[in-house]
Amino acid sequence: MEISTDPETASIATSHARQVPLLEMQQVTVMRGERRALEKLDVCIAQGEHLAILGPNGSGKSTLIRTLTRECYPLAEPGSRLRLLGRERWNVFELRRALGIVNAELLHGCTRPLTGREVVISAFFSSLGVPMDADADEVARHEAAAEAALERMEARHLAGRLVHEMSAGESRRVLLARALAHQPGTLLLDEASNSLDLRAQHELREILRRLAQEGVGLVLVTHHLPDIIPEIERVILLRNGRIAGDGPKRAMLTQARMRDLFGMEGELLERDGYYYFL
User: Fold this and answer.
1) DSSP assigned state of 4
2) Quick one: how many helices (H) and strands (E) in the chain?
3) What is the longest distance spanned by two Cα atoms in the chain?
4) Residues 15-67: tens digit of each pLDDT
């Protein structure tokens, strides 16, 4: 079959693909043990959107991300529907290759020493570390993409280093390279700044700003207001497994809303596009 290379046709096809939402949730409830971690959620997230999901610990933020990545499944109830990239059914490994996932816990489950290069290449196998039975030629085919992703994160010098010997900031750069290696349209960042010192937090935010400006979609899950970079356009407030607010950043990040969300008194400050609640 001949594939058209006409620029206008390609542009229309790309536009249509981007019109399919990244996530559509209708009346979604997710259990964690005996507890309803998410309760009747209605959420729609567009591809390429720059979005933050903000809430205190235990509000259901990580459960929402794990539902998106198919680590958690919603209850099968009348009127409930969950679609990812327009599809209700996915092979979980295929889905994870369509998304770039970054969380501070990813390396905690690693049971063997891995170099930065091995961690990045493992993205192509939806694993952590290259599988022992992986075809050598296939691994070699992914090495260039891994090197390019490390270069993009200014972390090429970490390719041969063991990850467990890296600082938290260095290992976070490697995880970002892993998430970007297969060029996903959206990065999912689950509390990505946890365990980082002030300098590493600043460097992470500068990296995310650059990626957002390059057109990479960001879905940022956090309980730290300063993680919400200026490029974030929309904020979803999550409390006790329910949506407490959803809209433009400036409308969501108000002193009254932050007081209600976190259950404490404080003053909301804005400086250079960043927000602080003190």
Assistant:
1) P
2) 9, 11
3) 64
4) 444 578 999 999 999 999 889 999 999 999 999 999 999 999 999 998 998 88
The model scores a pTM over 0.70: yes
Residue 7 neighbours by CB under 8 Å, 6+ apart = none
**Residue 55 token pair:** 């809430």
Measured between alpha carbons, how far is residue 67 from residues 79, 134, 141 in Å? Answer: 17, 28, 31
Cα separation values, 240 from 35, 57, 117, 141, Å: 11, 9, 39, 45
Q: How many CB atoms lie within 10 A of CB 138?
A: 12
Other beta carbons less than 10 A from residue 3's beta carbon: 6
Task: Answer yes or no: are the C-beta atoms of 79 and 26 closer than 8 Å.
Answer: yes
Q: pLDDT of 58-107, one tens digit each? A: 999 989 988 888 888 899 999 999 998 888 888 777 777 778 888 877 77
Report percent pLDDT > 70 for the chain: 91
Alpha helices in 153-197 (DSSP H): 168-180
Helices (H), the chain: 7-19, 61-68, 92-98, 116-121, 136-152, 168-180, 198-213, 249-252, 255-262
User: Cα–Cα distance between 11 and 200 in angstroms, integer?
Assistant: 38
Picking from 103, 247, 90, the residue whose alpha carbon sits closest to that of residue 187 is: 103
Q: Phi and psi at residue 101, in whole multiples of 5°? A: -110, 130
